[in-house]
Amino acid sequence: MKRAVNALQNFGKSLYGPVLILPIVGLFIAFGNVLGNGNLAKYLPLLGHPFIQNIGQLIAKSAVSVLVNLALIFAVGIPVGLAARDKGYAELIGLVTFIVFINAMNITLQLQGQLAAPEQMKAAGQSMVLGGQMLKMGVFAGILTGALSGYSLISVTGMNLTYSACHPANAPICRCPLSTIRE
């Protein structure tokens, strides 16, 4: 029971990073909308300049792209939060797991003949994610793949990968790390 509680606590802590991004993105969207909104130009004439409005739209739309790809943020952020060390590898593993998940779901839908036409995707409960058509899972896909890759990384971290053939005579008993083998 204590082990399950610890695992849930670690998972909850791993959500901190991706969730922390949300208010920051919200501030960028609000700031971009203030700059890009032509209605405020009557109060502040500077905001009526096309360059300022274009910069505001650029900021707002760029920040919205983070929200559109929120599943990817969770798929990368959760393994980083779960990893005690090698956080760079955790990010990479989370990203690769998410991409493989998208492509596996796309291939599964394709093999079953259930890929919907672009105009029928919404009715079929499908969406395009990073160029792959999959079931519409939203952020849950990122949380699922992030947790899967994070806990997989935890289970193999610290594992001693050994090479038992250090010397032909000692092969059954010799267990030296690969990095120590010299030819």
Automatic annotation (TrEMBL):
Give every Phosphotransferase system EIIC domain span.
13-155
Alphabetically, the GO molecular function entries are: protein-N(PI)-phosphohistidine-sugar phosphotransferase activity; protein-phosphocysteine-sugar phosphotransferase activity
Keywords linked to the UniProt accession = Cell membrane, Membrane, Phosphotransferase system, Sugar transport, Transmembrane, Transmembrane helix, Transport
| Short name of any one Pfam family annotated for the protein | PTS_EIIC
> Among the record's GO biological process terms, what is one?
phosphoenolpyruvate-dependent sugar phosphotransferase system
Q: Tell me the domain of life.
A: Bacteria
Q: Give the record's membrane topology.
A: Multi-pass membrane protein
User: Which cell locations does it reside in?
Assistant: Cell membrane
Q: Where are its TM segments located?
A: 15-37, 58-80, 92-113, 134-154
PANTHER family attached to this UniProt entry: CYTOCHROME C-TYPE SYNTHESIS PROTEIN AND PTS TRANSMEMBRANE COMPONENT, PTS SYSTEM, IIBC COMPONENT
The protein depicted here goes by the name PTS system glucoside-specific EIICBA component
| Natural source organism | Klebsiella oxytoca
